[in-house]
Amino acid sequence: MPFRAFGAEELANLKEVVESQQLWRATKGNFVSRFEDAFGKHLGRKYVLGVTSGTCANETALAGLGLEPGDEVICPASAPIFVSLPIVGLGCVPVFADSDPRTMIISPEGIKARITKKTRAVVVVHLFG
């Protein structure tokens, strides 16, 4: 699958960030804050949080659910370990559900088959996490 080439605007923005040597909040950079503000306006949301990875995004989202140790979280059996690590990190139990063999994405049937009284969340990710 070909990737979209960076245009002049993207390259100029990247150059600005790199040359500032203020890549993140701890170095007093404001690029993440500017992105969060713009993205929040685009989405019509008051609160937006930029994170460094999908793993951090999953952990942040799961932590916001108020899950308790021992709670079960259903996730795709075909996803990489980075999907289940945040679940384990919160003291919860990952429960692996089957994927649709045609799409390789977690299936509703696979989810339904794994739901128990301890199930508190389902993590659905794109192909392979």
Helix content: 40-55%
- Total DSSP E strands: 3
Give the radius of gyration.
18 Å
As residue ranges, the low-confidence spans are none
Principal-axes shape call: globular
Question: How is this structure best described in words?
Answer:
- The protein has 129 residues and is α/β, with parallel strands linked by helices.
- It has 2 domains: 36 residues, no CATH class; 69 residues.
- 40% of the residues lie in helices and 11% in strands.
- It contains 5 helices and 3 strands.
- Strands 2-1-3 form a 3-stranded parallel beta sheet, sandwiched between helices.
- Helix 3 packs parallel to helix 4.
- The mean pLDDT is 89.
Give a summary of the structure in a few sentences.
With about 130 residues, the protein is of the alpha/beta class. It has helices at about 10-20, 30-45, 55-65, 80-90, 110-115, and strands spanning about 70-75, 95, 120. It contains five helices and three strands; from the N terminus they run αααβαβαβ.
